[in-house]
Amino acid sequence: MSKHRIVIEPDTEDSNYWKDLWNFRGLFYFLAWRDILVRYKQTAIGVLWSLLRPVLTITVMAFIGWLFKSNIPGGVPRLVFVAAATLPWTFFSTSFSEASNSLIANSNLLTKVYFPRLIVPASTVIVCLVDFFISLVILIVLMIFCKFIPDIKILLLPLFLLLALVTSLGTGLYVASLNVKYRDFRYIVPFIVQFGLYASPIAFSSNDIYSNQSIPKILKIIYSLNPMVGVIDGFRWCVFGGNISMNLTGFIISIFISILFLGFGIWYFRRMEKSFADVI
Amino acid sequence: MSNPVIKVENLSKKYILKHKNSEPYTALRDVISNKVKTIANSKSQILNPKSEEFWALNDVSFEIKQGDRVGIIGRNGAGKSTLLKILSRIVTPTKGRITIEGRVASLLEVGTGFHQELSGRENIFLNGSILGMNKNEIKKKFDEIVDFSGVEKFLDTPVKRYSSGMYVRLAFSIAAHLEPDILIVDEVLAVGDADFQKKCLGKMKDVSGQGRTVLFVSHNIAAVQNLCDKGIYLKQGKVQMIGNVEAVLSSYLKASSEIQQIDLADRKDRSGNGIIHFVSVEVKNENNIPMKSLQCGKFGKIRINFNRKNNMPLNNVHFAFGINDEYGQRIAQFNNEITNQLFSDLRVDTIDIIINKVPFRQGIYSFVLFATVNNEIADWIQDAGTFEVEAGDFYNTGKLPPDGQGNIFIEHSFQLIQP
């Protein structure tokens, strides 16, 4: 007799879930592979699309920052300063929105085969991660162009990338499961992304917010609740080293919120997961 | 060997049917507005007329032993697909417990997850992994799969350029090379050409010959008879009979013919709010003379008699008359919504469907009756009855296409185009 044993019962916590997730890692890999393959098929400039969007965003945000004379630390070129924020932001925004739509986009799979549903949003985040690595070229080219030598702390960058990943996966999981039931979230997601672009320190630096006396304290706290503030501040701290002072409290809040989002996202996703095929 | 590989105990599945919701998903605004209504009027939650419980499966129990080839039969809506979906772990049951020993692969659709933009080769890997094979298994079977499908010339062509036949062949070939302990197959053989269907059935028989367990749902009685040795007959969400496939099939066939002996008005296997209650269906000719059957190529009339609750005039009335072939596949539908004839202020109890030229090949067809009033299901009977079509000279040429070349006739002509 085979060692596989499956028990199907309503509403019981599935103890094999995480083991199953591991067993289905092949599917996780193939779904990510499919999305990467499909993404640039029949496009004229192919992979360049992963560069074009961040380049345009960097240009626009740097221009806005310059126009409003936002403070940047001495010796740091504005373009590099903005790029170090735009890249993690673009990673977050694409993976958050793609993960949010991933269940709907794969509804034919959800209603026809079993697999741990977490694989679907998780694999879309991986695809966005690949895009992020491609877009790192922009940062490198800008640094060379502006003759800027990054700090040794740049080696800590993966840590902050992980934080961005945790944030986007957590929020993505939560919105993806809501999206199955309430399609309204299709309209809310682009709004969140657009709003976040201006509420996060991309065109400006967090120091401008924290050191500005005319901004009430409560607004500063609300500002620091945005986990992407921590991610972006972290990215800049890694790239520009001593030129940037990290706001430690804000950063700890960000980490805390990101992990909270992930925990809550997974919990909510798992709770809703069993009814996905019924309601999608 | 005597231990069951699948043990189903008191399995039930409930669905909430929403009648009025024309959108296929819940919108947040509805939830909010309903909540507001609920607060305003606390009764509305108790008397919610929009939703209705429906038990797709009701207290189902059975056991399947290793190596059994089980055909699950039953009429449309008997719960066959729901059962397979629960066994495949796609949906969770409302009550009950299932224990499965072994690796399960389910095939509820041919080519699940196929991506149009990807090539045949890429789709083999993608679909294989979706069906639960790992990369090495797929690599090992790759040549065999390609061989079985016969599409090797087009392996690097995107499947969107495939003909539907090639698509189905490739998709089924992948599925046929799964090596699970338990294989669950839904009505997937209905697609593809007859030869390929035979090849697939043969392959599945081989699979079960190797000690694997197969669960198979099909409307094709011959396929069930051919492939299965056990049968489970489901009726309205309950197990009606389990046993030897011949015995179960004959009981099923007997019941199907018996149920149509019951007067339509007294049938209990119907759903809807009862504002309309179908009473009888008759076939008539143009002079309103009752006929035993319709004649192919001739004028025909289907008369539907029904009752209206309290004889009230009805608004926004929609009828549908669905026609199934002998395999239970829907082949046509008459529907007054598509003919733009929704009835308002309806005060009659009889309605005729006019067919100017009956387009069906001779044979026996079953029909489904369906009516909604104000977008709520009023009455709905699956397999409401059968009607017979007699052979006729549809094209007025004394000739008809040979058997196996389709059961529906379409008027047409040929034209030579001069260069």
Keywords:
heterodimer, A: 280 residues, mainly alpha, 13 helices, B: 419 residues, alpha/beta, Rossmann fold, Coagulation Factor XIII, Chain A, domain 1, 2 domains, six-stranded mixed sheet, 9 helices, 18 strands, globular
Tell me about this structure.
The complex is a heterodimer of chains A (280) and B (419). By secondary structure, chain A is mainly alpha-helical. Chain A has one domain. Chain A contains 13 helices and one strand; from the N terminus they run E-H-H-H-H-H-H-H-H-H-H-H-H-H. Chain A has helices at 17-23, 25-39, 49-67, 78-105, 107-110, 119-145, 157-181, 185-199, 206-210, 217-225, 227-240, 248-273, 276-279, and one strand at 5-8. In chain A, helix 4 packs parallel to helix 7 (157-181). Chain A starts with a strand and ends with a helix. The mean pLDDT of chain A is 88. Chain B has 419 residues and is an alpha/beta fold. Chain B has two domains: 4-258, Rossmann fold (3-Layer(aba) Sandwich), CATH 3.40.50.300; 265-390, Distorted Sandwich (Coagulation Factor XIII, Chain A, domain 1). Chain B has helices at 28-40, 43-46, 80-87, 120-130, 135-149, 164-176, 194-209, 221-227, 245-259; strands at 4-18, 51-65, 69-73, 95-101, 104-107, 182-185, 213-217, 230-235, 238-244, 270-271, 276-284, 294-295, 300-308, 317-324, 330-335, 350-355, 363-373, 376-390. A six-stranded mixed β-sheet of chain B has the order 5-6-7-3-8-9, with helices on both faces. In chain B, strands 10, 12, 14, 15, 17 and 18 form a six-stranded mixed β-sheet that branches. Chain B has a three-stranded antiparallel β-sheet with strand order 2-1-4, with helices on one face. In chain B, helix 4 (120-130) packs across helix 6, helix 5 packs across helix 6 (164-176) and helix 6 packs parallel to helix 7 (194-209). The radius of gyration of chain B is 25 Å and the shape is globular. Chain B starts with a strand and ends in a 29-residue tail after the last strand. Mean pLDDT of chain B is 83; it is low at 42-49.
